[in-house]
Amino acid sequence: MFSWGDIAGAGTVSIIRRAKNDICRDYCENKNIKINLFGWSRGAIAAVEVAILLKQEGCRCSSPGGEILERRCYINKDGEKIWQTWKTIVGGYDETIKPVKVNFLGIYDAVEMSAQLPGKADLGDHMPDNVINWKHNVKTTKAQPYFPTRSYGGEPNERKYYKYGRNTTTHADIGVDSTWHAGHRQMIEAARGAGVNLGGDLPKLVWE
């Protein structure tokens, strides 16, 4: 299970690639593992990008195979027994598996770090279809031009959450369970419902 926070722009691409490679290493060792991704802010965008790479590129899994030792004996002209050993590599393979499925993708207010004029529509996109379960918790404040939320659609997977008392949430509020328990609680419940092993108690619910 991978989780990102707020990732600096210049290093995001290399982090996405490294995360994908780490996932593929584990996946190639055990193709029954469940891949779960979480992210906030630019980290949420990065988590979705990893899922896209797992769909488009998949994972290249290699196996070096095993060794078979074979010994043979022959008699030389002096009547002596001479043993020779051959080593053969068998069972190796190299295959690309795609798409690789993501069991759960939980993201908090996925944003691009670029200016967005007030009133302009959110950046739209689609969740890749190799993601089985996903949830996107979104802020309710509209006038934050430098934190434009990318909308993936798909209600009720994508919802806007308010603070207790119906006060609006900002980009910084999303994912902070002390200010808006309802959204954070439902993210945990959604993840657990998808089979993600998350320990601890759910936060106290103060608003539905």
In short:
By secondary structure, the protein is of the alpha/beta class.
Describe this structure in words.
This protein has about 210 residues and is an alpha/beta fold. The protein has 2 domains: about 1-60 and about 100-195, no CATH class; about 65-95, no CATH class. The protein is about 20% helix and about 30% strand. The chain has 3 helices and 11 strands, in the order βαβαβββββββββα. The protein has helices spanning about 10-30, 40-55, 180-195, and strands at about 1-5, 35-40, 60-65, 65-75, 80-90, 95, 100-110, 125, 130-140, 150, 160. A 5-stranded parallel β-sheet has the order 1-2-7-9-11, with helices on both faces. The chain has a two-stranded antiparallel sheet with strand order 3-6. Strands 4-5 form a two-stranded antiparallel sheet. Helix 1 crosses helix 2 (about 40-55). The longest helix has 18 residues, at about 10-30. The chain is elongated, with a radius of gyration of 25 Å. Mean pLDDT is about 80; it is low at about 1-10.
